[in-house]
Design a protein that fits this description.
Radius of gyration: 20 Å
Oligomer: single chain
CATH architecture: Sandwich
Protein name: Lipoprotein
Number of helices: 1
Largest sheet: 4 strands, antiparallel
Structural class: mainly beta
Organism: Terrimonas ginsenosidimutans
CATH class: Mainly Beta
Number of domains: 1
Strand order of the largest sheet: 1-8-7-6
Number of strands: 8
Keywords: Signal
Strand content: 35-45%
Order of helices and strands: HEEEEEEEE
């Protein structure tokens, strides 16, 4: 009985690993898209997402004492064939949402750079959004 339980645990672990889904078409790491640029959503799809504008950025500047952390909101457009689907995402949960499901993809805004008050946050620094993109199965 003592040998059967560890063997059963190892067998279940191998079964779970063998049944894991392949994440083909999804980015393993966050994708970075610059302002007014677009990136493909996957390697086998012609759909793209573009970073259109920073709608609002009220984040508390670095090395400042604020009563509220603030929020950054950005506007994006997903293009798939003849469809153009605009949407907004925010850095913090709330309105608008931090992520969305659109055209079979989950898109989450995880960062917006440059951060206010940090080195390189002057007007010359490129504005870029960090997105996590996953294809729904």
């Amino acid at each position: 009985m003592r040998l059967r339980f560890p063997a059963l645990c190892v067998g279940l672990a191998l079964l779970l690993v063998a049944c894991s889904k392949d994440e083909a078409g999804s980015y393993k790491e966050p994708s970075v898209v610059r302002l007014n640029a677009r990136i493909p959503l996957s390697t086998y799809d012609t759909a793209t997402v573009s970073f259109d504008e920073v709608v609002s950025d009220s984040r508390c500047p670095a090395n400042s004492l604020c009563s509220w952390a603030g929020i950054a909101i950005a506007r994006f457009t997903l293009r798939a064939g003849q469809k153009e689907l605009p949407f907004m995402l925010s850095i913090m949960p709330g309105y608008p949402k931090q992520d969305t499901i659109i055209n079979g993809y989950v898109i989450e805004l995880s960062d917006l750079q440059p951060y206010p008050g940090m080195a390189g946050s002057d007007k010359k620094a490129p504005v870029q959004a960090e997105l996590r993109i996953f294809r729904l199965r």
